[in-house]
Amino acid sequence: MTGGQLLDVTQEIKLDHDNVRELFERYKSTTDAATKKAIANTLIREMAIHSDAEEVTVYNDYATIGLGDVATHNKEEHAEVKRLVYAADSHGFGEADYDDVLAKAVTAFDTHAHEEENDQLPVLRQKLSTEDNDRIARAFLKARTTVPSRPHPWAPQTGGIAQKAVGAQGKLHDKVVETLTDRDFVDVKHTHPTF
């Protein structure tokens, strides 16, 4: 994609939601343990990245369009999702209740995603200018490359500089952990544009 094409932040957010849903369907239908574990790793990564990327970009603009209280509510929901994703990430894959632990995280994520899609994304589409929509979409996509790839529920959740600074350290930590533990991942079905 060239830098001249305008992006829609609501489409980029929905793409993440759809990836999590599709990954979980794959997870539930897969019987091969190695593939299932790689899908679980990818689910954890995608939910963690999505949550932090929204917090440090999209939610910061909610107040300007009359959704300041919604941003606070969303961050509270994200905190719960992160706690549940963290529980799945730290739980031993293959333990008898692992599927239930992961399902709780995905269900919390999906409940929040439906709320965004039904109540918030239409407002964003309506109230953002084309230029602001594109700017926020690009910031969101850039943030996806800089935020941690694993959940850190006790890190700052403010969307501000503290979360960005801790997130940069967390991203480095996560890369080391993923390398040392030889984590495998699967491809996601839907990909974001590059610029």
Question: What does the model show?
Answer:
68% of the residues lie in helices and 0% in strands. It is mostly helical and 195 residues long. It has a single domain, classed as Four Helix Bundle (Hemerythrin (Met), subunit A) (Up-down Bundle), CATH 1.20.120. α3 packs antiparallel against α4. The N and C termini lie close together (6 Å).
Please state roughly what percent of the residues sit in beta strands, choosing from under 5%, 5-15%, 15-25%, 25-35%, 35-45% or over 45%: under 5%
Number of helices: 6
Helix content: 55-70%
Query: What is the mean predicted local confidence, pLDDT?
Result: 86
Which shape, going by the Cα principal axes? globular
Task: Give the SSE layout.
Layout: H1 9-29, H2 33-56, H3 68-90, H4 98-127, H5 130-144, H6 161-180
Helix pairs in contact: 1-2, 1-4, 2-3, 2-5, 3-4
Put the structure in a nutshell.
With 195 residues, the protein is an all-alpha fold. It is built from six helices and no strands. Helix 1 runs antiparallel to helix 4, helix 2 crosses helix 5 and helix 3 runs antiparallel to helix 4.
Which short descriptors sum up this protein?
195 residues; mainly alpha; Four Helix Bundle (Hemerythrin (Met), subunit A); 6 helices; globular
